[in-house]
Structures are given as C-alpha cells and as structure tokens.
Hints:
The structure is a single chain. The chain is built from seven helices and four strands; from the N terminus they run E-H-E-H-H-H-H-H-E-E-H. By secondary structure, it is mainly α. It has helices at about 15-30, 50-65, 75-95, 105-115, 120-125, 135-140, 170-190, and strands spanning about 5-10, 35-40, 145-150, 155-160.
Amino acid sequence: MDSPKFLIGESYGTFRSAALSNYLQAENGVYLNGIVLISSILQFSPMGDMTYISLLPTYAASAWYHKALQDQPENPKTFIDDARRFAETEYASALMKGARLSATEKADLPKKLARYTGLSEDYLLKANLRVNGGQFLADLQRSRGLTTGVYNARFSGFAIDLLSEYVMSDTQSDAITGAFTGAFNVLRAK
C-alpha cells in the first residue's frame, strides 16, 4: 500500500479509469497517485449542448479537409475561426433556447450549420441541430460511399453500411493496425 498507484486508460479506458478511481476511493479507501489518460474520449461525456458547441470547429476542419463543403473556403484557419465564433455565439444561443427557437431561427440555422459541417440542411433539421461525433463521421462522406476516421478524421474508408447512423469501424485503425501489429511482433521476436 506504500507504493505509488497509477492507472493508465486509453480511449474508452479513460472514463473507465475515472470510474475505477472513484470506486477505489469510495469503496476501499484506496487513493491513487495519478491517472494517465491517453486518447481521451471524456469530451463525449454527457455535457448537454456543450458537446455540440465544442465539436463544431472540429467538424468544420474535417469537412474542409475532405472538401465536403458547398463553398470550399480557401483559408482553413479563417474558416475554423469563423466556425468557432459561430459555435460560441449564435449556435450556443440557439441550442439554449431549445423549443423556444423561433421559426425564422429554426429555418436559418441549418443553412449556417451546413456551411460549417458539410452536412445537409435536412439531416441537421432531423437531428434537431445536434449531431454527435459518430453521426458526423458516418454522414460527412456518405454520398461518396465513405466514412471518416474516428481517431484521425483525415482518413477515409469504404462505408460498410450506407444506411448506418454511426461509423461502423475506424478507418484510421483499419489502415495501420496490420502494419503496427507486424512491426511489434518482429520487435518482440528479437
């Protein structure tokens, strides 16, 4: 018990590490010295509308990278800065209004969101202006028969199911896992 105690969590292990730390402390009186979170997905925790607001600039960057925007801006930095401003102001305000959103705002917002996300206005309306990460990655390049990478949105891969609401696998992992596994096995054998 005198030794330092650390947890390391990667991807889904990040929120499991947080839960395990809480459990150990509350149920067993075991306090950890630290937790290392790698590729954290804690930003997808239930944060209400903040999740959608905080993800919008990332969606904009991904849509720009894949040339999925109707009017492709030349300068990505300016475009992403604009998306960030829109997310923090008009989009945040609209989401907070919820059902009190006026008919004019409800008609206008999908156009603006489509400009930043590359998603159709119809899709954004059906999603009630709230598209989570898995839905965005599945729909961004759907018309091309592709999905977008989960861990690295620069990757694209063939869509397994064009009707799926969410990404079925990670195209980035699919592209590199075999090579990494082979390299690790070669190194381990030496």
